[in-house]
Amino acid sequence: MESLKKIEKLIGKRQQAKLGGGIKRIESQHAKGKLTARERIALLLDEGSFEELDMFVLQRKTDYGEEREVFPGDGVVTGHGTIDGRVVYVYSHDFTIFGGSLSETFAGKICKIMDMAMKVGAPVIGINDSGGARIPEGVRSLAGYAEIFQRNILASGVIPQISVIYGPCAGGSVYSPSLTDFVIMSEENSYMFITGPKVVKTVTGEVLTEAELGGAGMHASVSGVSHFTAATEEEGLAKVRTLLSFMPQNNLENAPAVECNDPINRLEDALNEIIPDNRNQPYNMQEVINTIVDNGEFFEVHADYAQNIIVGFARFDGKSTGIVANQPSKLAGVLDCNASRKAARFVRFCDAFNIPILTLVDVPGFLPGSTQEREGIIIHGAKLMFAYGEATVPKVTVTLRKSYGGAHDVMSCKQLRGDFNYAWPTAEIAVMGASGAIEVLEGKNLKAITDPEEKKAYIAKKTEEYQEAFANPYQAASFGYIDDVIEPRNTRFRVIRAFKLLQTKKLNNPLRKHSNIPL
User: Fold this and answer.
1) Topology classification of domain 269-427+472-503
2) With contact defined as beta carbons under 8 Å apart, do 77 and 49 qualify?
């Protein structure tokens, strides 16, 4: 029958399309330790859920006589499926077809699924493995990039966008991932840079490998471009699934709740003793976080970057929550340029997608010095302040120990519309630490004392008086800036109860086109 022949033809075309650039190129991809575009999608999505779109799209002809081969799909696999039963849209570059280089039709396929994702309110995941623009297409390739960038911008804060880098990502290719919410890079085979090692050597004389210039390790720990790294492609895709489990589908929904079997009133006596007697002795804030969240499960973001501040996702009574916490074991938990930017971006993501924020404070101030001032610590610190002040989601703050000066204001204080601001009895809320304060307050008196022992005794006496007055949370509580001083072991219960009370919170910012955050 004629219809059966047509069906056989369809099946044959599908089989041809699924081979991408052919068996030899697939084998070459595997030899590099890399999966193919469709293998990656199969690992990412629920089994059998992927529905491919535009499988038979072909690239436009060019006047440049280099491209004689024609491949169905034109170098990118696009479609939709589910992750844990929730709809997502996905595209995956196919390096076996022209090195995954972007053409006009390649870009059109990506733009189509991004438009569809915006219509239905579903996340977009892009798996990048591309040699960049397809040179014979010239400006049409550049226009294709810009079409994608424009959609990244319009989708920002509306639907979650996640980029996975599993190969080269250079030149114009880097801007789409940088516009998305989270970037994951493979440790072995990925790199991102504006210009490659050869160009860098020609222009600056620097001799660098691809990994040194733009590898996963560099971007995860130095530049902050990458939020996660993965030893294998399978691990990276598993992280995408975990990350999405903390997010809503779009900005009009809440993140999915899960059943919680961890008692909300669980007491942790260890927290009563976790703050050292020596005010300058570090401790690990990760231990506090792991103790109070559901089942000790904390999904850290940007773990290798600006480690003096911690950001990530957890659950309280089954509900997704973003956590921002100073880390006393790294640079004493001070805020610097990188920590401020890191936390500000995370706070804005949580606010955009209706995820409540818990802030755990132990901050001695902003990092002083000419280097920080020249790098713009003022404006970077203002970003974090702006992010907290603009956020309308439920915000709970717990001050564990130090909260000094401008850093106190920045870390979700009551005046930045913190909803519940708690403190442990060990909290120290003041303009500055005792040693700095005594130098300022007692400067004239100290100059008048010539005997070294007498001066030492005087400093010790005044320091003790200052600490008695300010090295506690009760002065702040007397003004209502701290809602309650709580027993550390009871922190989990107080945080959960606060967030429960805030489930019906309604707060709107003034009507405006958009804010002008200090960038």
Assistant:
1) 2-enoyl-CoA Hydratase; Chain A, domain 1 (3.90.226)
2) no
Residue 413, SS3 per DSSP: coil
In the block, residue with structure tokens 């640079």: 331
The pLDDT assigned to 170 comes to: 86
What is the value of pTM for the model shown?
Answer: 0.94
- Grouping H, G, I as helix, E, B as strand and the rest as coil, residue 302 is coil
**Degrees (nearest 5) of the Cα angle 15, 19, 24?**
140
Reported as a single tens digit per residue, the pLDDT across 88-109 is: 999 999 999 988 889 999 999 9
pLDDT of residue 136 exceeding 60, the answer is yes
What is residue 131's predicted lDDT score, i.e. its pLDDT? Answer: 84
**Lowest model confidence (mean pLDDT) among 383-397, 423-437, 485-499:** 423-437
**Residue 223 DSSP symbol:** I
- Is-contact 26 96, C-beta < 8 A? yes
pLDDT at site 459: 76
Report, as residue numbers or ranges, the catalytic residues: 171-172, 406-407
* CATH class of this structure's domain 2-60+67-159+170-178+231-245: alpha beta
Contacts of residue 192, defined as CB under 8 A and 6 or more positions apart, other chains included, come to 165, 169, 170, 173, 174, 177, 185, 214, 219, 225, 226
